[in-house]
Amino acid sequence: MAGVDLGTEEVLLRVPKDIALVPLGFAIDSGGSVTKLLYRSKEDYENGIRIAKVGHDDGILRLRHLATEDCDEIVKFLQDHCDMLETAKTESEGWFLTGLKARLFRKKMEDTMKIKVKNLSEMVAISSGLKGFYSAALLPELRPLSLSEEAVKHALGSTRDFLRMMNSAAAAQTGGDGFFDELRDRIDPVAVGQYVMKLMSVDALTLTRELSDDVIEWPCLNVICGSAAGMIVMKDSGGFEIGSFLPIAGRTFVGFGRLLCGAKDFAELVEMAARGDSRKVDVMASDMKVTGVTAEEADWYSSLPDSLVAYSMGKLAENAASESFSKDDLAAGLLNVICCAIAKMAVAVARQTKVKCVVFDGSLVNSALVRCTLQKWLLFDSLIQPLIGEQSLKWIFLPYPGFICAFGTWYQNWEMYKGQAEK
User: Fold this and answer.
1) What is the value of pTM for the model shown?
2) How many CB atoms lie within 10 A of CB 372?
3) Secondary structure of residue 8 in the 3-state scheme
4) From the DSSP assignment, how many helices (H) and strands (E) are in the chain?
5) What tens digit of pLDDT does each residue of 116-154 get?
6) Alpha-carbon gap, residue 423 to 420, rounded angstroms
7) Is residue 356 within a helix (H) or strand (E), and if so which, with residue range?
8) Which residues touch 102 (CB under 8 Å, ≥6 apart)?
9) If you ran DSSP here, which 8-state letter would residue 107 be given?
10) Sheet holding 394-397, edge to edge
11) Of the chain's two ends, which shows fewer C-beta atoms within 10 Å, N or C?
12) Contact 59/17 with Cβ under 8 angstroms?
């Protein structure tokens, strides 16, 4: 499956020739702190004619992050670097922009660049981005990413531990066949038995390939992980419904990261989390278990896999905690808390809305470490669900996830341009 992380550098995206020729030449998604820019560069085009020699005849668009607060600088960048056609000033009653801060650009662009612009709902932009760019096979480079083998291996190990513990505990307490005996009235024990045999024998790489999917099923739950986490049910018709909203995501991560870890920004905080060990600040299930007790005496922590978090950041409450962890460990624990919250909410909303497919995008999941941490929580849930007769959810992570609204805005402008050209 295609897709790469987008860092701070500009990225070139290969697109169908026609879709690159929107006269405006750019699409903006202006977020609370970061503006995502998709544009046709003067390095690649001159008045809509491709001049770049890159070994193919397709179109080229560029992806770039810019600081939203630098509104004047963004407009100047577009004037200096964007191949905007003169017809952009006359062929539309208003080109679309999107994002929380898009209104900041409206008057500046109308006065400085002499173009008419109007706001596009972020919900419409997301729907258009999913269906127009990611689902319509227009851009092979935008096929969903493979799941993390590290996350699958972690979830598989936790699930195996869970099965062993539940089976032993149930057998000791009931005198029956264990875990399956308790569920016999609700599920097909033969099917579950076959599934368990597979889980106990399959290797992580094979399971990663099986679980990774590049087909979005409709309706789907779209989880937008940015400053906050919005959860929207997207329908095949293009319609949508609000699923839920979680005010704990990227902004929370960076805010606490600055306060507690001394990180200056998101990138530094992720680097710290990558070096850290969250187990030094989290109380794990293995820390809670008491040995040498009977099944009747064991508490419910005994049924949890050792690798499962019992109390997030719980070791900070211990008197000697300050001597046993670093700021890197604290950053890793903080990331684990954020990802746990998002994952648990996504699972709950997906079950409630009865969707089978959950799509993740937004700037937060541009980080491979964030994706892996999220997937550890999500995949454990998915592997457990068939044991109680539920269908596993499909998890899809999009490449260039922060640009979905910019993609959708470009697509809306292209559709508008095509409609005007056909008149």
Assistant:
1) 0.88
2) 18
3) coil
4) 13, 15
5) 999 999 989 999 998 888 876 566 778 899 999 999 999
6) 5
7) none
8) 28, 29, 30, 119, 120
9) H
10) 240-246, 229-234, 220-225, 357-361, 394-397
11) C
12) yes
